[in-house]
Amino acid sequence: MMSNKFPLSTSLIGPDPDYCKLYNLWYAYAKTIGEKEAWRIAKDWGIDLVVVNPSFVVGPLLAAEPTSTLLLILAIVKGVRGEYPNTTVGFVHIDDVVAAHILAMEESTASGRLICSSSVDHWSQIIEMLRAKYPSYPYETKCSKQEGDNNPHSMDTTKIVELGFLGFKTVPEMFDDCIKSFQEKGWL
Predict the structure, then answer these.
(1) Could you give the residue numbers annotated as active site?
(2) Domain 48-185 CATH superfamily
(3) Secondary structure in 3-state letters for the chain
């Protein structure tokens, strides 16, 4: 069930900005404010805006330098962060994000917000899964005590599926691709 304070649906634009400020969720705050402004401009200018909203993007490294999300995963796997986030997060494979953007561009009936997310898990579940599959890495063992960003929620992907999206890669698939990419780069 979706949390009332941290919804991400096709009709609501991100989490409540005041909630984000209260719990220092600055990335979510910036994304929410930015999207609200995009919708305002689209309305003012009569633009038919389509927004693809991916959750936490995971998968292989595609650029020369890792993204902040991949750096977070690498730090958690190496056990150098001090703690892992006490968050429940939607995860999505980078390949699915690319496919969603192409679908949004090519499908003439695409409109509004398209939520792009595979499943929602707590970081402790991700670490447990990775530790079982890749036991030689140290991993973070301490969960952050930071409150406010661990609200259980779901992601409503109905709209993108109805457009013809064929299905999301699983969490194990996306993290396998991520770990293999780190290994190929010599980072693990």
Answers:
(1) 31
(2) NAD(P)-binding Rossmann-like Domain (3.40.50.720)
(3) CCCCCCCCCCCCCCCCHHHHHHCCCHHHHHHHHHHHHHHHHHHHHCCCCEEEEECEEECCCCCCCCCHHHHHHHHHHHCCCCCECCCEEEEEEHHHHHHHHHHHHHCCCCCEEEEECCEEEEHHHHHHHHHHHCCCCCCCCCECCCCCCCCCCCCCCHHHHHCCCCCCCCHHHHHHHHHHHHHHHCCC
